[in-house]
Amino acid sequence: MRSSNPVFSRRGFSRDNGHAGFNAVPQAGAPAAGANPYAQGTAANPYATNPYAQQDTQYGAPQAPARSGAMTIDDVVTRTAMTLGTVVLTAALSWALLPVDEANLGKSYGIAIGAALVAFVFAMIQSFKRKASPAIILAYAAFEGVFLGVISSAVSTYIGPGTVMQAVMGTMCVFAGVLIAYKMRWIRVTRRFYGFVMAAAMGFVLLMMVNLLFSVFGGGDGLGFRSGGLGILFGVIGIILGACFLALDFKQVEDGVNFGAPREEAWLAAFGLTMTLVWIYLEMLRLLSILNGDD
After folding, report:
1. Cα 17 from Cα 11, distance rounded (Å)
2. So what's the pLDDT on residue 81?
3. Residue 289, Cβ density class (10 Å: 0-12 exposed, 13-18 middle, ≥19 buried)
4. DSSP calls for the chain
5. What pLDDT is attached to residue 100?
6. Chain-centre distance of CA 145, in angstroms?
7. What is the C-alpha separation between 145 and 161, in angstroms, rounded?
8. pLDDT at position 38, please?
9. Low-confidence residues of the chain, pLDDT below 50?
10. For residue 13, what are the contacts with CB-CB under 8 A and spacing of at least 6?
11. Is this prediction's pTM over 0.90?
């Protein structure tokens, strides 16, 4: 399937015409297809070894666990904590070791940009691999943390020391809010929802790339999408898109647990959640920088 993140792609937990579990039937303990607000049909468990799994699904019978060593919520939580912990650790180290004062600003920014490019490469490698590679995912997290640490240090120095903490708290609140809304079924991740979010994300990313090109070759803020009123508007849109990606990530995790995905797939869930949280944090940091900079 295509990614639930804005740029990259990674393998989904269920394989139904390229969409992650939107037509899937959960295991025992989950609602049957007729009661499932996400179900639009029937599909066999992609991890089931039972040759009658498709027939059982058609008659509404719950599917047996796909295999031993299946992915659990605890596996996802543990791997996500390891990945995010790596991001936080390297971010703290880069903040401390790469000052953004006038004497070292160019060097620190250069290292940050280099780290971001390396993180991008690792993310692309993982997105095209058939199986999760913990080493690649943790390497991505480490280099992403270096980039975030320098950027956060610069914002703290030139905008205000409280801006970074506000962005962290805002990211945590978005995560908690989307999780509660998803668990309460206030958000229904359907095929239409998926298509709308991905189309909006592609348009958003392309627009930001055009703005970047105008700023590089024309100077200033390009088309004005990174400052002022337009910057605030697009910052809010970016955060909303990040919240939608979180809902897609939660759906993939739920499908993986219900279908009995192999335990190593928890690393893919951690990878996706980390990328989405980084997206939200950067958009939150940019939005707060604009707001606090206008004070």
Report:
1. 13
2. 96
3. buried
4. ---SSSS-----SS-BTTBSSTT----TTSPPTTT-TT-SS----TT---TTHHHHHHTTPPPPPSSSSB--HHHHHHHHHHHHHHHHHHHHHHHHHS--STTTHHHHHHHHHHHHHHHHHHHHHHHH-SS--HHHHHHHHHHHHHHHHHHHHHHHHHT-TTHHHHHHHHHHHHHHHHHHHHHTTSS---HHHHHHHHHHHHHHHHHHHHHHHHHHHH-TTTTTTTSHHHHHHHHHHHHHHHHHHHHHHHHHHHHHHHHT-BTTHHHHHHHHHHHHHHHHHHHHHHHHHHHHHT-
5. 81
6. 15
7. 19
8. 34
9. 1-44, 48-66
10. 20, 21, 46, 252, 255, 256, 259, 261, 265
11. no
Rounded Cα gap, residues 134 and 142, in angstroms:
12
Secondary structure in 3-state letters for 32-77: CCCCCCCCCCCCCCCCCCCCCHHHHHHCCCCCCCCCCCECCHHHHH
Locate tokens 């951690």: which residue? Answer: 270
Tokens standing for 36? 């499932």
Task: Give the span between the Cα atoms of 8 and 16, in whole angstroms.
Answer: 19
Would you put residue 71 in left (φ > 0), alpha (ψ -120 to 50) or beta? beta
The type of residue at 44 is A
CB 21 within 8 A of CB 261: no
Residue 123 has which token pair? Answer: 């993310």
Tokens encoding 153: 């240090």
